[in-house]
Amino acid sequence: MNKPFAITLDVGSSRANKTGSWRTERPVYTDRLPPCNNACPAGENIQQWLYQAEDGAEGGYEAAWRQIMADNPLPAVMGRVCYRPCETACNRAQLDEAVGINSVERFLGDEAIKQGWTVPVDATPSGKRVLVVGCGPSGLSAAYHLTRLGHAVTIRDANDRPGGMMRFGIPQYRLPRGVLDAEIERILAMGVTLELKSTVHDGEALLKEFDAVFVAAGAHIGRRAYIPAGDSARILDAVSLLHGVEEDEPPLLGRRVAVYGGGNTAMDAARTARRLGASEAVVVYRRTRDRMPAHDVEVREALDEGVTMRWLSTVARADGGRLLIEKMQLDDAGFPQPTGEFTELAADSLVLALGQNADLSVLEGVSGITFDDGGVQVSPDLMTGHPGIFAGGDMVPGERTVTVAIGHGKKAARSIDAWLRGTSASHQPRHDLAPFGDLNTWYYEDAPVTVRPELEAARRVSTFDEVVGGLDRATALYEARRCLSCGNCFECDNCYGVCPDNAVIKLGPGQRYEIDYAYCKGCGMCVTECPSGAITMEPEET
Amino acid sequence: MLRQIEGSRAVAEAVALCRPEVICAYPITPQTHIVEALGFKVKSGTLRPCEFLNVESEFAAMSVAIGASAAGARTYTATASQGLLYMSEAVYNAAGLGLPIVMTVANRAIGAPINIWNDHSDAMSQRDAGWIQLYAETAQEALDLHLQAFRIAEELSVPVMVCMDGFLLTHAYERAEIPIAEQVDMFLPRYQPRQVLDPAQPASIGAMVGPEAFTEVRYLSHARESRALDLIPDVVAEFGKVFGRDSGGLVRGYHLDDAETVIVALGSVLGTIKDTVDELRADGMRIGVLGVTTFRPFPAQAVCDALAIGRPTKRLVVLERAFATGLGGIVSADLRMALAGDRAAALHPPVMSTVVAGLGGRPITRASLRNMLHDAAAGALEPLSFLDLDKDLVQVQLQAGRAG
Predict the structure, then answer these.
(1) Residue A435 maps to a domain
(2) Quick one: A83 and A143 in the same domain?
(3) How many domains does the structure of chain A reveal?
């Protein structure tokens, strides 16, 4: 070809000019800790599994479920009963509403049950035997993780059925038993030995039989308060009430039921009373709604079902058919103080929901073990003062939720594994938190939260059917895609697109990107325009 | 086919007959009717295959034209006034890259103050951009020049600007002979690009060139553009054979044989001038007209040959619809440059006067021309004057300015 002189040239390239030498700062891809992950007591990698779930039915749901299962063996349960600290922390709440993480988790858990997904046990057997005392969430979680680490696990539980407080404390309308049974069965099928109606007494002696013991016997002893009462007064505790219902032996409560206390158990007791036929269920609480320990959603659902509340009230005396209520007043410090003013409340029975005490009998008298604040004292690795005996769940001081218990189970399993192998559990350093301010929120589409269907109130009070419905495949996918991927690359190609030097290299699906520092001038546009705040500028070394 | 047709429509018909493959334009008065008509043709399917691109600016229009032309497509665009200025950088690039783009400039004044009417300020501002510039006298000639423009552009690999007076030619209805497709196809062969882009043999076009080669690049551009001076008469001859019409060319004389006074001009004003000259000749004045059709490259030799200075031309009046502020006539300067190399002109230097006329659409009337040409014949015309200038008004303003 006759090329026009000096107009058409051979293919040269501006790549001869290594503009990277102009740089004084360099962009670096980072992974920040999303606030959801940071808040999860079970230590789930939520942002990661939401990202995987975005691939939907094409393997995405299963991959997401397996990511959950790396930390939590009970997703379908957690997707119903978790109090969702992740959603409280979610950055999207500052944009419109938090991502419905819990509802996606429930969908994935239910999908796994429907599809029959299981987790393989492929670790080399360690030859070590571990006893888990208590088949509640903490014990099940520990048994699951220990099994996956190659240890032989036996669970002993005093009840005739497994599940602990998930079965005997959480009513069916919040956690259908089919779901609970399926998730427990999946753990047991991995090779866990379960011994029911087996009460454990001498903790120290167990170490002759087992290489390590994890005690997670829970806190199922209803706390009593002294209330002057007449002979005809009917007083029982909430734990017994809920346990009785589960055993199909509900106690007689009468038409008018008062529940004393302001926690989640009080809400469960009042709502259960409504379902057992009480036309009036009144919660008597000494402080105000904003100071109630019960979670807001539980209070709302209880109110929806016709439960009423008596704020700033204590029960001064109980007689057959009536309660003497003393009105309270909050002092400057927010504590309720008696006023000497009394009213009466008609009630056929009084249910005490004043908290539960841990059953510490198994550890009493064991050398080296100390108790504090009604719980067992443990090290950060959850080992008690007696080497080889670990404890977790409601037995140790701290927040008492299923989610915390599951997290304890995982932590204890890792600690026990390390202890059995003569090492110490490794702790990966935590990434810096991904703050809302690092997000470029306008890159994300508007997407209001998906509302889960609820059983209408009129239907609820006559059955123990599940109140809150789940998401379907479409809505779960939508909800997963609402995730902003705070502080973590989700391969949106923004950096790739905005780089004026073509210095962002795509490494392929799932492999993210690399900066070509030979040409990156360090202009920082990729950092400024990253939607999720997953790139930072670092000073260039001189 | 003879039709009574708006000048813009006539040009659109001509362009369509040239089978352009890419048309990209941004609307600006008074050019819009041309590309509107072409847009209809593309949309309705009567002009195909052709890609009509709506772009966001004139800069984009010329940039698209550059890309399309480099890719081997016969490419057309049109603009005017500030639109031409806005695309100016790309106008230079198109010429530098030797891309045979054809562009209509519907001549219009340049602001400020804003003015949509006709003069030649816009096209004159781009006279050194490396494009061939042809100026049409009538709607028929505008039509014909577009047919010739593609032929010239593609043969030389030089872009061609066809300049036609805004409104006077674009919006007025005139009688025009619209050729048939077979004639145009006979006259204008398929576009064979100077170089064909081939992914198997990658090349870079228009990249950085340093001082070691830039002078040579420019010299070669000048040489290539200058070849149009030889080519255009051939094209005109062939055009005459195919279409049976004498149209276009380098320069056109009118009653030059015995003219002692010659008025030189470009564009549609030549019609009025010729009418005036007819009247003056009837009065006995020995006067003629030289119309410059090809302004770039400047046909110096053709001008000198036509004027035959001293045998008998003694006096030149250059009527200009634009001027170089702070200097004077633009065409006059080129004319002086041409005469400087002419032996006859050296022996008998003619008296040259520049008359700036018709700025921003001001009508150039026969009466004004008569008065001015009488002055010229009487030797009373200043070297630089402005036709129909309101002298009282400017005096007042100038004095007010000095007082302030």
Answers:
(1) no
(2) no
(3) 4
d(CA A448, CA B26): 42
A40, part of any domain: yes
Residue A8: closest CA among chain B residues belongs to which residue? B205
Which CATH number belongs to the domain containing residue A376 in this structure? 3.50.50.60
Together in a domain, A406 and A499: no
For all residues of chain B together, what is the average pLDDT? 96
- Do A338 and A326 contact (CB within 8 A), yes or no? yes
- Neighbouring C-beta atoms of residue A23, cutoff 10 Å: 16
Residue A336 lies inside a defined structural domain of this protein: yes
Q: Which of A8, A9, A15 to mutate: most B Cβ within 10 Å?
A: A8
Residue B200 in contact with partner chain A when CB distance is under 8 A: no
Q: Do A4 and B209 touch (CB under 8 A)?
A: no
Q: What is the pLDDT of residues A458-502, one digit of tens each?
A: 778 878 888 888 888 888 889 999 999 999 999 999 999 999 999
* Smallest CA–CA distance from B157 into chain A, residue: A4
Contact across the interface for A8 and B205, Cβ inside 8 Å: yes
Inside any domain, residue A2: no
- Residues spanned by the domain of A200: 129-171+181-221+357-420
3-state DSSP helix/strand/coil % of chain A, to nearest 5 = 35, 20, 50
* Partner residue opposite A9 with nearest CB, options B98, B203, B216: B203
Domains B2-193+206-242 and B251-393 share a fold: yes
Q: Which residues in chain A have their CB less than 8 angstroms from residue B207's CB?
A: 9, 12
Query: Which residues of chain A neighbour B205 with C-beta distances below 8 Å?
Result: 7-9
Residues from chain A that touch B96, judged by Cβ atoms under 8 A, are 7
CATH topology for B251-393 is: Rossmann fold (3.40.50)
If one counts every other C-beta atom within 10 angstroms of the C-beta of residue A334, the result is 10
pTM equals 0.67
Digit-coded pLDDT (tens) for A268-317 = 999 999 999 899 999 999 999 988 999 888 899 999 999 999 999 999 99
pLDDT reported for residue A175? 96
Same domain, A272 and A211: no
Q: What is the ipTM of this complex?
A: 0.76
Q: Do A6 and B205 touch (CB under 8 A)?
A: no
Cβ contacts below 8 Å, chain A against chain B, sum to 43
**Do the beta carbons of residue B191 and residue B156 sit within 8 Å?**
no
Residues A411 and A364 in one domain: yes
Q: In this structure, is the dihedral angle defined by the CA atoms of residues A59, A63, A64 and A68, taken in order, positive or negative?
A: positive
Element (H, E) at B271: helix B269-282
- Chain B contact probe: residue of A2, A5, A7, A10 with most B CBs at under 10 A: A7
Chain A residues near residue B216 by CB distance under 8 angstroms: 5-6
Disruptive mutation site among B157, B158, B197, B205 for chain A (greatest number of A CBs within 10 Å): B205
Do the chains contact at A11 and B216, CB–CB below 8 Å? no
Provide residues of A within 8 Å CB-CB of chain B.
Answer: 1-12
What whole-number distance in Å separates Cα of residue A328 and Cα of residue A336? 6
Element (H, E) at A347: strand A336-347
Residue that finishes a domain, picked among A310, A325, A352: A352
- Which of A3, A5, A6 faces B203 most closely, judged by CB atoms? A3
Q: How far apart are CA B79 and CA B61, in angstroms?
A: 9
A12:B207 CB<8 A: yes
Q: Give the whole-angstrom CA distance, residue A142 versus residue A414.
A: 9
Domain B2-193+206-242: which CATH number of 3.30.200.20, 3.60.130.10, 3.30.420.130, 3.40.50.970: 3.40.50.970
Interface contact A6-B217, CB threshold 8 A: yes
Spatial CA neighbour of B317 closest among B265, B247, B267: B265
How many angstroms separate the CA atoms of A5 and B218, rounded? 10
Domain range annotation of chain B = 2-193+206-242, 251-393
